[in-house]
Write a structure and sequence with these properties.
Distance between the termini: 68 Å
Shape: rod-shaped
Number of helices: 2
Oligomer: single chain
Helix content: 10-25%
Length: 182
């Protein structure tokens, strides 16, 4: 699910106006050599909840090894619901750009999408926190060497782990009654 989350966040950031190649994993310290604006992602521990719900039932015909067709019943079950929280930190030197980007980034995030196994993953923005370093003052004047600001988004990707159970069905038979024969 982390690959799916990375792809969705990267597409939304590029659509919101972030330059190419600026989405990366979270760095340990703020490095002056890394260009701003940029987006840093941090994946938090996943939460698994056991469900066992039945998602769907279908009938399929499958060709056997001997060339005969078999009728199969396929049940799709949800084994677990998985929640993956992701911290997305948007770092910038321009507060106005950060405000425009933040609005466009949230608007560009889809409601959800299908992961590599075809299961629906719901995407939600839980909260956003704006921060900037405190002002450095000398008397009444503010000295600004670097004007840095960032916004930390907490996104939740909710998906599922599924399994398919197949069961062979009895083919149809025609029973002819023996009427009048003893």
């Amino acid at each position: 699910m982390q690959a799916f989350a990375t792809e969705v966040i990267t597409r939304a950031a590029l659509a919101a106006g972030l330059p190419e190649g600026r989405v990366m994993a979270a760095v340990k310290k703020d490095n002056l050599t890394l260009d701003r604006p940029r987006v840093e992602m941090q994946f938090l521990p996943e939460k698994y909840t056991r469900t066992g719900r039945k998602l769907g039932v279908s009938r399929e015909t499958v060709k056997g090894e001997d060339g005969t067709e078999k009728l199969m019943l396929v049940r799709k079950r949800e084994l677990y619901v998985v929640e993956l929280p992701v911290n997305v930190n948007v770092l910038s030197e321009d507060r106005e750009w950060l405000e425009r980007f933040s609005y466009a980034f949230v608007a560009a995030l889809p409601r959800g999408g299908n992961d590599s196994r075809g299961n629906w993953v719901k995407i939600q923005v839980r909260k956003a926190t704006f921060s900037r370093p405190p002002d450095k003052r000398v008397g009444d004047t503010v000295i600004e060497v670097f004007t840095r600001a960032n916004r930390l988004f907490t996104l939740t990707f909710t998906g599922r782990i599924t399994a398919e159970e197949t069961e062979e069905l009895i083919p149809s038979y025609t029973i002819t009654p023996n009427i009048g024969k003893a």
